[in-house]
Amino acid sequence: MLAMQIPGLIDPVPVPRASTARADGKIAIVGLTRPELIAALAAAGLDAKAAKMRASQVWHWVYLRGVTDFDAMTNIARDTRAILAEHFVVGRPEIAQAQVSSDGTRKWLLRFDDGNEAECVFIPDAYRGTLCVSAQVGCTLNCRFCFTGTMKLVRNLTAGEIVGQVMLARDALGEWPAVGVKPVVRSPDAAGDTAAGDAADFDDGDDDDDAPRRNYTADGRLLTNIVMMGMGEPLYNFDNVKAALGIVMDATGLGLSKRRITLSTSGVVPMMARAGDEIGVNLAVSLHAVTKDVRDEIVPINKRYGIDELLAACAAYPGANNARRITFEYVMLKDKNDSDDDARELVRLIRHYRLPAKVNLIPFNPWPGSDYVCSDPERIARFSEIVFRAGISAPVRRPRGRDIMAACGQLKSASEKVSRAELDRRAAEKEAGWVDAA
Ligand code: SAH
Ligand code: SF4
């Protein structure tokens, strides 16, 4: 049936993309792209010129100032503010739970308007502060070592819900400029903004000894980097992730550089070129295994897009070069993918495809019911050494926030206990769905 694929057809997105409807009928401003905001203001009755001007002012208040109340938008006429308040809202996801790890990592469980929940994690470091953002509630894929994959409920997050995670983190970190303080409009490509290395180096700053310790940026912000590595597969929610990251990168608003944003995919090959062309952020790929058998087992999307197809797509990723390497994530699972031969095969593959690559070795983070064990530290060190000796950077990641289940692969919202047999049945169902849809 796969042979019948229509050229140009991309993966079926098994979950709806529509915005979550608000009960009060108001339109949420956070998450609208600039053209959408202008159109929405025009639809609310502003003439074309006013809509454009007010959109810029609203954008400033929302994304540079963090203002949520239209009455605080003091350069907008009172009657226009009344129109705005009648039709629009500047909201935040509700915080259902907030936790802080002993290592300073923070995790928020967010509840959206329809009651669905997703998690978002902030990881402070010596040299950067990284926000790990979710793209979906749950995940349609079933990587065997990942807690998120066990969630029953799946829906895409809207662009507003994705940007909302960034807004909420800035609220919680107290990072909006105080009243009377002029906000710094950041140039996304300014040298000072890119000096602290790859966004994916979020745990111990192995290669940035010259970066300032605190505060990270000229305007003292702690949230410097974003990784799309929370719950879900971002390339199965392409349009909303693209819109959200466009807003986050807008230089007149949040202004994060594309060099400080990393999108992680489990290997949705047909969407990778578009991600590079249309979003342009750093790419991380969840490789995790170097043989078909093992990757089929632990990252089941491999049955659809195999290792060779995936690495060829990496080689063609727009924007990848030696200055902007692709990060390969590799979870260390005892006796599963951690042998010397695995390490050597990893090196061979990276060389074969001439990939500008670095490898992040992630010690497996356990979760209730998980059926793998983390490789021993000596094994991980040896694996790292083999890859490193071949001239490829292969740092071992320090797990962050394990005590509050905030580490890679430990995110899960609506808690639900399911057996392995049930998980296998669901995985088979999902795979059948892919084949049918193709
Ligand atoms: N869905 C995307 C992004 C989210 S997962 C993806 O799979 O790439 C972020 C990273 O954490 C991925 O590399 C994922 O494979 C890894 N991961 C998942 N479960 C893990 C676990 N239990 N321990 C360590 N890393 C895990
Ligand atoms: Fe989904 Fe990524 Fe977890 Fe796999 S590792 S189940 S793609 S969130």
Layout of strands and helices, then pairs:
Elements: E1 27-28, H1 34-43, H2 48-64, H3 78-87, E2 88-89, E3 94-100, E4 106-111, E5 117-124, E6 129-132, E7 136-137, E8 155-156, H4 159-172, H5 191-194, E9 225-228, H6 238-249, E10 261-265, H7 272-279, E11 282-286, H8 292-298, H9 307-315, E12 326-332, H10 340-352, E13 357-363, H11 377-389, H12 420-437
Parallel strand pairs: 1-2, 6-9, 9-10, 10-11, 11-12, 12-13
Antiparallel strand pairs: 3-4, 4-5, 5-6, 7-8
Helix pairs in contact: 1-2, 4-6, 10-11
The site of iron/sulfur cluster has 11 residues, from loops.
Number of helices: 12
Enumerate the spans where pLDDT stays under 50 for 5 or more consecutive residues. Answer: 1-18, 188-214
Topology pattern, helix = H, strand = E = EHHHEEEEEEEHHEHEHEHHEHEHH
Give the total of domains: 2
Helix content: 25-40%
What does the oligomeric state look like here? Answer: single chain
How many E-type strands? 13
The CATH architecture term of the largest domain is Alpha-Beta Barrel
Q: How many strands, which pairing sense, and closed or not: the largest β-sheet?
A: 9 strands, mixed
Euclidean distance between termini CA atoms: 7 Å
Task: Provide the structure class.
Answer: alpha/beta
CATH class bucket of the largest domain: Alpha Beta
CATH topology value of the largest domain: TIM Barrel
* Proportion in β-strands: 5-15%
Q: How is the largest sheet built, in terms of strand order?
A: 3-4-5-6-9-10-11-12-13
| The named CATH superfamily of the largest domain | Aldolase class I
Distinct small molecules:
S-adenosyl-L-homocysteine, iron/sulfur cluster
